Amino acid sequence: MNSSHYDVVIIGAGMSGLAAAIRLAYFDKKVCVLERHYAAGGLNSFYALGGYKFDVGLHAMTNYVPPGTRGAPLTKIYRQLRLTPADFALVPQYQSEVRFPGTRLRFNNDFEFFVQEVIENFPAQKDNFTRLVRQIQAYDEFDLEAKPVSGRQVVSSFLTDPLLMDMLFCPLMIYGSAEERDMEFGQFVVMFKSIFCEGLARPWEGVRRIITVLRRKLRKVGGTVRMKCGVKALRVAGGRVRSVELDNGEALTADTVLSSAGYVETMRLCTDCDPEKFASLEGQMSFVEIISILDREMKTLGHDTTNVFFNTGMTFHYENPKDLVDPRCGVICCPNNFLFDKPLPQSVIRITCLANFDRWAALDEQAYAQAKAEWLPRIHQEVLKFVPDFRDHIVFTDFFTPRTIKHWTGHLNGAVYGAPGKIKTGRTHLDNLFICGADQGLLGIVGAMLSGITVANLHVLKK
Amino acid sequence: MTNDQIKQAVIHIISVIAPDEDLSNLKSDVPLRDQLELDSMDFLDIVMELRKRYNIEVPEADYGHLASLDSCVAYLAPSLKDRST
Q: Closest residue of A to B50, CA-based?
């Protein structure tokens, strides 16, 4: 075989691509990961600006369980990637909350605490909620053949209080729904377990640590990563990918191709696909994020909460906004408010709200900068309903939009959680092309890694 | 490899896959699943490690033979008895 032939080519050096590559290279497959950008991580990456370090994607890692917890997704990751908890060095959150006008549900990494919060705030829903939790815990979210059902429909067959329903859906949708207004029940369960039953944590160094650990491991087991190496096309013939054509004109061949680029995005690379045919499947949900560096920690202003998932009205609207931004709901994340044993080098507050890709994409450079300048104070105004006024302490601010997300992740429409229809088996119309990552249906950093592992196991190693 | 060496080799593989498990008191005749938290992903890894380390192919139909340490030894002995460790 020639030197540009691989057992497996993986598109994208995000969490799922790197995890899949580690599995395959460890078991002696010749693997090459292709990454269009110069930074790895995909949706969860990092950058430096104005002398400060920023994380994108990762507010907090969901699915946190203490080392040694049996059967949990995070434990599976450690085992499957031959890593240990010391590698990620995750530090648990202090406490987070879901805030609606007049009602607050707090949660930490002890699920019983959250159950008590729900019961105290919604005493009439006690039995209903208990039954819902039982249903969630019994649900096998790893059943790849499960039929999709509406989450709203299933949850409303248990809960009769619409406010409680919205307060449960709010953080789960903001942290993982590719779908507007509703969430497939399997996805709801994945998110419920990862946020409420398990919990939030963060390495002191942020997402950099996770990416560094994965890349170091991949190097150690003999996998190759090629940065600044985009894929232009997947040449298809006879129901198989015959070659992977790169932006630089080079062509690679591979027995199997795993793509973390997204389902529609991957189909658009296939030479046998009509891109128009897939337009209706594209994801729409995108976000803006304002990341501000502060001259002091939010704790000193009286705010020690890790994440606030907020909604300013009584009903929760998770849909592609008509305007540039919908500041009615979002997340306020304070990365300093984890139980670190030494303070972070800088104080940060991150605010994320829903945003409309098309509106941002239509602006010319001047109007784009102006839109950011206009929305910044409007978003701040909304979040001041939930956190102490920090505006006098801002020393630097960066503002990213759906346009930035599209540029860095390649996701159409800057759709953070990919397309609404998930391909749980990872299979495509081609025999040797499989999907991993957000569009395979496991979300968050742990979910993405598990997705890469699952698809690598199922479609390459088990063969 | 003697039967005991084969058993130690399997225990070593499990220790690589599940370093968080205590393997010091494993009973040879009791299914591994009853003594350890091993899921189907972990069993796939036992198969994969056997391939990686000893070049042994375990077809999916034979996974049942890996249930306990004793059954692993019985199943692997024909392939491994003439090898050095």
A: A27
Contact B19 A84 (CB under 8 A): yes
DSSP secondary structure letter of residue A313: S
Residues of A with CB under 8 A from a CB of B: 27-28, 67-68, 70-71, 75-76, 78-80, 82, 84, 453, 457, 461-462
Q: What is the pLDDT of residues A225-242, one digit of tens each?
A: 999 999 999 999 999 999
Residues of chain B with pLDDT under 50: none
In this structure, chain B runs to a length of 85
Mean pLDDT of A194-213: 97
Do residues A211 and A45 make contact, with C-beta atoms less than 8 angstroms apart? yes
Nearest CA to CA, how far is B67 from chain A (Å)? 18
DSSP state of A101: T
CB of B53 within 8 Å of a chain A CB? The answer is: no
Residue A226: per-residue pLDDT = 97
Alpha-carbon distance values, A248 to A8, A245, A391 (Å):
20, 8, 46
Single-letter code of the amino acid located at A223: G
Query: Mean pLDDT throughout A318-325?
Result: 97
Q: Nearest C-alpha of chain B: how many angstroms from A222? A: 14
> Cα A447–A449–B12 angle (5° rounding)?
120
Tell how far CA A427 is from the center of its chain: 21
Which residue's structure tokens are 């800057």? A414
Q: Give the E-state strand segments of A312-382 in sequence order.
A: 325-333, 347-355
Q: Which residues of A touch B45 (CB under 8 A)?
A: 79-80
